[in-house]
Amino acid sequence: MRVFLSGKTATEGREDIIMAQLWGGRFTKATDELVYDFNASIGFDQRFFQEDLMGSRAHVKMLAKQGILTEQERDEILAGLDGIEADVKEGKLEITKEYEDIHSFVEANLIDRIGDAGKKLHTGRSRNDQVALDMRLYTRSQVQHTEELLHHLLETILHIMEENTETIMPGFTHLQKAQPITLAHHMGAYFEMFRRDELRLKDIYKRMNYCPLGSGALAGTTYPLDREYTAELLDFFGPTENSMDGVSDRDYLLEYLSALSVIMMHLSRFSEEVIIWNSNEYRFIEIDDAYSTGSSIMPQKKNPDIAELVRGKTGRVYGALMSLLTTMKGIPLAYNKDMQEDKELSFDAMDTANGCIQLFDGMLSTMTFLKDNMEASAKNGFTNATDAADYLVNHGVPFRDAHGIIGRVVLYCIEKDMAIDDMSLEELQAISPVFEADIYDAISMDTCVNKRLTIGAPGKEVMEKAIASYKAYLSK
Ligand code: ARG
């Protein structure tokens, strides 16, 4: 418990106060008030109150199974923990700054409630393996949560794909119109990205799902703990295999933050496109009123704030990853207090990324695609120039020469403010006699898109196969 006397640091002779700390026995003075606050983590680790209870329940069941506690002691402790949980839920008991951390809060309240049996809860356990467990349990559930959110986003994307295998739009390189594609094809690229993200999370889960409880402070314990049993009670694949690593490993958290960073990078790229597509110049989409905001001064505005915020918040998530990497880099084995710094920014990153996925999904599923504008834009940007060159190649012109001829065709069109398709056959033949009447069909948007039938290309037939395989993936 918080034991300083207001404004003073020394509490000589106040054993009652000093002993109230979990670790007060060795001390003759209470902690300085500023030190107390600097050291405390209750302000943020109360987030894993539930996980702390889960871990304590499993630990106590195991202690009784091993004959380290009696069954009666176990039952008293379990009832005490239930009571604490219920009182916190009902608001009868508040998690306050009077406690150093969530572990002390639970233990002190248990002792208050059930007396001596409560003092046995921490047998064969250290806060080092306790916090390692709590953080891992909390992160594990967050990993699953992110995966569910991503899965839903993938469903939204697939739905847009299914409806837009014939929606022609320009594909870009260097933000310059390049070749025509379809909206389904464009969305498919994001499907691939978020599917990789989902698979990455599944992979992290496989590696992280081992239980550190029983590692003790760093060197295990001399009590005959059954670590397999606690691991099983908590749904882990098994116990971690080295107790020093068990208390000091935060790799799983780094991997998760790294996966979240990649997810944010993908969302941010997508947001950037939404912002461009929503601009007055493009008008490829209309964001639903529920997902856009207005200007306080300019009545005509409908701003893509959600997309901009998602793009902006990406930096915060990267920040958490960089912060934890830096925190961990100089820590000798095993536990050091630096590791308490793994929490605040990570929690913020989890909330931020999960919130962004959900909001982006909502924005995407409610947006309207202005298909006519997309198609008109594809037609007006020489996106069929490559196909016109390929036409000449198919008629025996070497590609480099064909490239030069079409370059002259494009220049002619720019001067006359027209599309290649608008040129008459005579105009085309004046530049190259190889052109015949079938050129128009060869460079139509339909041909440009639907003749592209290699794996991964936008042609409708290929796209339909991709959609079928994505559907099968999602229903697994
Ligand atoms: N609040 C600490 C943390 O978050 C709990 C572990 C404390 N262990 C210790 N030996 N002081 O890391």
Write the layout of secondary structure elements.
Blueprint: H1 15-18, H2 33-39, H3 42-45, H4 49-65, H5 71-89, H6 102-114, H7 127-163, E1 168-173, E2 176-182, H8 183-208, E3 210-211, H9 227-233, E4 238-239, H10 243-248, H11 251-278, E5 285-286, H12 305-328, H13 344-366, E6 368-369, H14 371-379, H15 385-394, H16 399-416, H17 425-431, H18 439-442, H19 445-450, H20 460-474
Parallel strand pairs: 3-4
Antiparallel strand pairs: 1-2, 5-6
Helix pairs in contact: 4-5, 4-7, 4-9, 5-6, 7-8, 7-13, 7-20, 8-11, 8-20, 11-12, 11-13, 12-13, 15-16
Arginine (ARG) binds at residues 41, 45, 101, 127-128, 131, 335, 337, 339-340.
Bin the strand percentage.
Answer: under 5%
Low confidence ranges: 1-14
Separate helix tally? 20
Find the count of extended strands (DSSP E, 2+ residues).
6
Structural class: mainly alpha
Q: How many distinct domains?
A: 4
CATH topology of the largest domain: Fumarase C, Chain A, domain 2
The bound ligands are: arginine
Q: What is the C-level CATH assignment of the largest domain?
A: Mainly Alpha
Average pLDDT for all residues = 94
What is the approximate shape?
elongated
In this structure, how is the largest beta sheet organized? 2 strands, antiparallel
What's the CATH H-level superfamily name of the largest domain? Fumarase/aspartase (Central domain)
Q: How far from one another are the termini?
A: 50 Å
